Amino acid sequence: xxxxxxxxxxxxxxxxxxxxxxxxxxxxxxxxxxxxxxxxxxxxxxxxxxxxxxxxxxxxxxxxxxxxxxxxxxxxxxxxxxxxxxxxxxxxxxxxxxxxxxxxxxxxxxxxxxxxxxxxxxxxxxxxxxxxxxxxxxxxxxxxxxxxxxxxxxxxxxxxxxxxxxxxxxxxxxxxxxxxxxxxxxxxxxxxxxxxxxxxxxxxxxxxxxxxxxxxxxxxxxxxxxxxxxxxxxxxxxxxxxxxxxxx
Length: 248
Known about the structure:
Elements: H1 2-14, H2 23-53, H3 64-73, E1 76-80, E2 82-84, E3 97-99, E4 104-112, E5 115-119, H4 122-130, E6 142-146, E7 149-153, E8 159-160, E9 163-164, E10 172-178, E11 187-190, E12 193-196, H5 211-225, H6 229-247
Parallel strand pairs: 5-6
Antiparallel strand pairs: 1-10, 2-3, 3-7, 4-5, 4-10, 6-7, 8-9, 11-12
Helix pairs in contact: 1-5, 2-3, 2-5, 5-6
């Protein structure tokens, strides 16, 4: 799809000699367009759920909630969290933490021994840990998040004595929605012209049903880049038609 989208974009831009975008520009626009459509999934999903709740959305083949969910599911994955021992002389220290995956977009949950670790606000974390009534346990663990770092209690999840509990046998698992991979239109230069090379390319991760939306958004970005107002206006109109098709 990475090549067919580019061919369509170049055809539309060159149709009236509006301009040309280089492979580097195309890859930049493709990355931005894919990210915008990907992020749109979540607001569209929320709107569709609300409409379905008030019975203004169809079910079955017209169930946009399931359709959007299926698109999001492509990016749903899990990973074992890496543990950082801040002070090796004091295993299971208060400053020890787990690191979230670098490609994380939205956190779903964190589990330990198949139990969900409850996330709590930083402002309440210490209070819960130090309370006799709400102190976390291995059965009911909690965590707080500080950027990409996750602090979990009780400390026995880190270590019991000198024995690591977050081993391959009992890992801390992060279930999350990852960011899409950056699309790359790879090429080989032949007689000063770039020719598509699938071996050095990375395809879009969006489903084929979003190909038209990708073309529209890339053309729009290209129109802004080459300062062609008619391209921007045309793609705005196309974008409106595409939105109506998806939400009808």
